[in-house]
Design a protein that fits this description.
The protein has about 140 residues and is of the alpha+beta class. Helix content is about 30%, strand content about 25%. It holds the Pfam family OsmC.
């Protein structure tokens, strides 16, 4: 799929999973450490690529929910999106990731909330990029 770019994010990694990442504007300057569960040192105060992906996906999906809500003329308040990114061995012997998105849309009916989440899943660039490539599970709640 070809896109007309309107923005390009830039970051540099050095040292792989146990290195450093920086964004070109220096806002991100983070130490990476492989989690202990994956055989790494799990250094305190560090992050990993899966956490960064989870943060990006959650933020992007919430933005897509805003678009879906505006299109449906629905007002949303206090929305939360929690992304859980799993890492593990794939069937082919390599490694892969999965995504579970827990979306809470308080104050609206469950059916309407589920419709908005499905619409956002079709809008969100992260969802579009992962479609057919990784397992993505959506959970929708309407808890206050």
């Amino acid at each position: 799929m070809k896109i007309e770019k309107i923005f390009t994010a830039q970051a540099k990694a050095k040292g792989g999973r146990d290195g450093q990442i920086t964004s070109n504007n220096q806002v991100l300057d983070l130490t990476l450490s492989t989690p202990k569960e994956m055989g790494g040192p799990g250094k305190a105060g560090s992050t990993n690529p899966e956490q960064l992906f989870a943060a990006g996906y959650a933020a992007c999906f919430e933005g897509a929910l805003g678009v879906a809500a505006r299109q449906a003329k629905v007002r949303l308040d206090n929305v939360t999106v929690e992304a859980l990114i799993g890492f593990g061995k794939a069937e082919d012997g390599g490694y892969g990731i999965s995504a579970d998105l827990h979306v809470n849309l308080p104050g609206i009916e469950q059916k309407q909330a589920e419709e908005l989440v499905e619409a956002a899943h079709g809008i969100c660039p992260y969802s579009r990029a992962t479609k057919g490539n990784i397992e993505v599970n959506l959970t929708t709640t309407t808890n206050a």
